[in-house]
Amino acid sequence: MLKLDAQLQQKRERAIRLRTMGATYDQIAKELGYANKGGAYKAVKAGLHEAIVESAMEMRVVQNDKLDLLLSRCLTAFMSGDLDQVKNILAIEKRRADLWGLDASKQVAVTGADGGPVQTDVGQVLLERLRQLGEVCLTLLTFRPTKFCLMRLTIL
User: Of 77, 103, 129, which marks where a domain is finished?
Assistant: First the structure.
């Protein structure tokens, strides 16, 4: 099983190299023995995804090792009586929690006065504006121009 995984990994790496050099998926499929360009595309995509996930995980492990070293030194100083190291120790542990996503997500609730819903006057403003527009429409619908108005309109 390990040999197959290693061969698959090498084939994916080769597919990525060919794609990087400008080869089409059809060319990659022919070169590496995939049934069609879809197989070559999947190999490149899987290889890239694997590389990204591994890189991120490797970086976390390296960062974690650095934090372990720093924590060890701070704890040694703290045990020797350096109480100023408490801030450093807490900062290191905070960084570790962030690195590994250990802290629960923080939720923020937006509320109005006394914890009730947020009150705005937007609804009232809109209702008032609609009422005004309704009155204007009603006025326009019931408007009967007089002879004087018609003459004035033609002059304008």
Answer: 103
